[in-house]
Amino acid sequence: MAAKLTWHPQAREDLLLIYELIGLDNPDAAERLVTTIENKVELLIRYPRMGTRHPEIRAGTRILLEGPYLILYQTDPDTDKGPIVEVAIVRVVDGRRDLTRSF
Q1: Number of Cβ within a 10 Å radius of residue 88
Q2: Which of 19, 20, 50, 68 registers the highest number of CB atoms within 10 A of its CB?
Q3: 102: pLDDT strictly greater than 80
Q4: Which pLDDT does position 99 carry in this prediction?
Q5: Which DSSP letter does residue 18 get?
Q6: Within a domain: 18
Q7: Cβ(8)–Cβ(92) under 8 Å?
Q8: Closest Cα to residue 71, out of 2, 10, 1, 4?
Q9: pLDDT of res. 62
Q10: Which of 10-24, 40-54, 85-99 shows the lowest mean pLDDT across its residues?
Q11: What's the average model confidence in pLDDT over 56-62?
Q12: Any idea what the CATH number is for the domain that residue 88 is in?
């Protein structure tokens, strides 16, 4: 059974800010990056545990990488076995920043 995918408002805002920042110099690159990130997130519907756990950043958080960007997400339930009901995208951030101070 496929998991339900949701985006927290902050994650959508993060993605919009990334788009706007890159789009100032290269709108086509911004569009490609956002599409790539959204496509990668869609994989979580079928493979919700594909990201690695990072409790040092935020409890229950898993991370997918896309270039320098980190897609932080949580699963419900937060288990390593059994079906996942929901995958929630929590943030999309630049991995070059100090994440332990941000969350």
Answers
A1: 18
A2: 19
A3: no
A4: 57
A5: H
A6: yes
A7: no
A8: 10
A9: 96
A10: 85-99
A11: 87
A12: 3.30.2310.20
d(CA 94, CA 87): 20
CA distances from 34 to 23, 31, 38, 58, 102 (A): 11, 5, 6, 24, 22
To 10 degrees, the CA torsion angle through 89, 74, 97, 35?
Answer: -30
Name residue 66's beta-bridge partners.
69
CB atoms within 10 A of CB 21: 11
φ/ψ of 86, rounded to 5, equals: -145, 145
Domain that residue 21 falls in: 4-94
From residue 13, give the alpha-carbon distance in Å to each of 46, 77, 78, 93.
24, 25, 24, 10
Alpha-carbon dihedral sign for residues 4, 40, 75, 7: negative
Q: What type of residue sits at position 5?
A: L
